[in-house]
Specification:
By secondary structure, the chain is of the alpha/beta class. It contains eight helices and twelve strands. The strands form two sheets. Strands 5, 6, 7, 8, 9, 10, 11 and 12 form an eight-stranded parallel beta sheet that branches. Strand 6, helix 4 and strand 7 form a beta-alpha-beta unit. The protein is elongated, with a radius of gyration of 20 Å.
């Protein structure tokens, strides 16, 4: 069954123009057809089309499920942008499908890309949320310098920095335990600088490895999110 994103569905009772066009013109759905809707803040709706207008498709809500598939932990992934933006977009899609709550674009000393436009990434997050039948849309923060990111208060989250510098590191899968909120830093293609690693450690971040293989930035991001997901599924 088709899933649509409508953050203000309870206020308007309609899909926005983009979703309405997809519903009516592309999928050729008609009055009386059933559909599913998510609002990005945890609500999942079963609905029926009442007026299939291609710009303002009206629906009747039949059932509401609150906190749909809500997890008992949160993951904030701060990742440096890749030189090839397609790789960052791939990460955003896969991380959303697996389960991530917040994404920050981290501008580092060795970052080759310094500017990322959030508009396209937001659309990718919405599409991935619908594809994976999730009701929570990850929060996408504006890009931030590593220095300013370190000024944030991370509360009680476990803090990890993944890097390739030759020094003693823990294994993420050994260091993290289920039901813990986590903030994980992933560096650029040229890795974090030694100064950045030192600043992170002084802030309380634990240096970790994702395994023996040296991973690309986007692969490391997905691997980190997947590691956290598996540990929580196994409750270890």
């Amino acid at each position: 069954m088709a899933i649509f994103y409508a953050p203000d569905i309870l206020e308007t009772g309609t899909l926005n123009e983009e979703e309405s066009n997809h519903c009516v013109k592309v999928l050729r759905m008609k009055a009386g057809d059933d559909l599913e809707i998510v609002d990005g803040i945890g609500n999942y709706y079963k609905a029926k089309i009442s007026n299939p207008h291609h710009k303002k498709c009206a629906v009747d809500i039949l059932e509401t499920i609150s906190e749909y598939s809500k997890r008992n932990y949160k993951v904030h992934l701060a990742i440096a942008p890749t030189k090839n933006i397609d790789r960052l977009e791939w990460f955003a899609e896969k991380a959303t499908e697996i389960g991530v709550d917040e994404i920050s674009i981290l501008i580092c000393d060795h970052s080759e890309r310094k500017v990322v436009k959030n508009d396209r990434l937001e659309k990718i997050l919405v599409s991935a949320m619908k594809q994976s039948k999730k009701a929570y849309l990850p929060r996408l923060n504006e890009q931030v310098s590593f220095t300013n990111f370190m000024k944030q208060d991370f509360g009680n989250s476990r803090l990890f920095i993944c890097h390739c510098i030759d020094q003693d590191k823990k294994i993420l899968s050994h260091e993290y335990h289920s039901k813990q909120d986590a903030v994980i830093l992933i560096g650029p293609e040229g890795d974090f600088s030694e100064d950045e690693v030192e600043k992170a450690i002084n802030k309380g971040f634990v240096p970790v490895s994702l395994g023996e293989s040296r991973l690309r930035t986007e692969t490391a991001g997905v691997a980190a999110v997947h590691t956290i997901s598996v540990i929580n599924e196994l409750n270890i």
